[in-house]
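Item description
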Amino acid sequence: MANPDLAAKMQSLHRSVELAHQGDDDLGPLKLLPGVWKNAEGTRGRGWNMIALPFATEPGSRINYRLLVNQYEETLQFTTVDKAVPNRGIERPDPSTGNPSFDTDQFIVTLDYQQSIAQLAAEDNPVSGKAGPADLPIHHEPGLFLHMTNFTTSDLDVARLGTIPHGNSLLGLGQAQVINGPPTIPAVDGLPDGATKDLNSGYLAPYKHYNDNPFKGTITHPDFDGFNPVHPHLLLELGVPNNVVRTTVLPFNTELEKAGIVNIPFIEKQADAEVMDSIFWIMELDEPGVGSEPKLMMMYLQNVGLDFFPKFGQQPGLIRWPHVSINTMEKVAPPEDAERYPYKPGV
């Protein structure tokens, strides 16, 4: 989504840090994000999470892991914009040409975020006693979304910087796009890579348990099929609204270029968070929303690969365990009203 006019404008400005506001074209593909997003009204209880974790089971067991599933609610705020952030560069031609050097300064627009998640319900298999009660805070993440307005590499024009209290920091890169109509949700295989894919093998007994008895959290409606960690994308796919006019797609992958995840030593040793692939879909609906904007809904699908335990057979390396989170939220307030929404889901 290269925008030469925006790049030229940023080059002409002094750097500024200010309250974000709705409809700011200076944000490029991030322009719909400023404000407060929540699981509210029609999106209550639509966050779902699955993660396999090392767990000492009974002596002689092959498994030694537990599969934890959560239903959660989230508050996600985008409130502060940092414009015309300069990255200084220079182009030095071959001296034989006689051409002078020239500046190749890059200018970035950034939008900060604060993510807070608390579970509504949780279960694990085998049962560990560690799943925790309702309202337990299970995630907090401050970070930045970036739009690179010029001098992009491989057309990668957006980035996400995140820091997680477990002891991880990440940089994901991607190429934004705007499409007409609703998004297409990609399929995700929730089973580990490098082990067996046979649900009847015994090794995947925790997955088979939830495949046969999908996790329903707090939802008691008889037509609700529940969250199945074998196919964790399905609830997201089924929840796409039928009146989406346009969708902004913001993908972030830590395996592109020099992006990546950095972990503290304990995580590297026990359950190494090696890769993250996430997609945010910002959907404009054919109905009124906050302020002058149409109703805005956000879906995301995030898959973090955790590496632990040796692969089966003669395969080198470690098994990769998908840690998948999905959610659907709506924008409930502009950024200037963010103080009315503390970083606590349900408030």
In short: The mean pLDDT is 94. The two ends are 36 Å apart (CA to CA). DSSP finds four helices and 16 strands in the chain.
